[in-house]
Amino acid sequence: MIIFERGISFQFELLMRLDKFLFFARLYDSRSKAASACEGGRVKLNGREAKPSKEVVPGDIIGVKRKYREFKYRILNIPKSRVSKSMMGLVVLLLNSEVLEKPELGGSSFVHREKGMGRPTKKERRDEEAFRNTLF
């Protein structure tokens, strides 16, 4: 347990599940969002994709992808409960953040239809989708 000058105290653990840690360290808003990010391959532990159940220890490096940015954090401590934003510095250390390239869109997905033709039929929609997939 660590006690700070304002009477705030923290207790730390030795091991914790990755999804639980991501939630407790405030890297994700909920544990389920953290778990789905792990399953989707957007979270790496020590350079490798990790399942939500993977155990983390202090000193591990976590990589988190969000939209077009990638963040790398070093785990300093493992908290017993969720920490406040002001105390995040005791749990993780931001090593770096980099901007990833945005994918270029090949063009509009809108297909022009003449006025008065109405909604496309299911067959027309499938044909248009197949045509768009051949372009990309």
CATH superfamily: RNA-binding S4 domain
Question: Remind me, CATH topology?
Answer: Structural Genomics Hypothetical 15.5 Kd Protein In mrcA-pckA Intergenic Region, Chain A
Structural class: alpha+beta
Strand content: 25-35%
Largest sheet: 5 strands, antiparallel
Question: Nutshell version of this structure?
Answer:
The protein is α+β, with helices and mostly antiparallel strands and 136 residues long.
What would the keywords be for this entry?
11 strands, elongated, five-stranded antiparallel beta sheet, 136 residues, Structural Genomics Hypothetical 15.5 Kd Protein In mrcA-pckA Intergenic Region, Chain A, alpha+beta, two-stranded antiparallel ribbon
Protein model, in words:
It contains three helices and eleven strands; from the N terminus they run E-E-E-E-H-H-E-E-E-E-E-E-E-H. With 136 residues, the protein is an alpha+beta fold. The chain has a single domain, classed as Structural Genomics Hypothetical 15.5 Kd Protein In mrcA-pckA Intergenic Region, Chain A (Roll). A five-stranded antiparallel beta sheet has the order 6-5-8-9-11. Strands 1-2 form a two-stranded antiparallel ribbon. A two-stranded antiparallel sheet has the order 3-10.
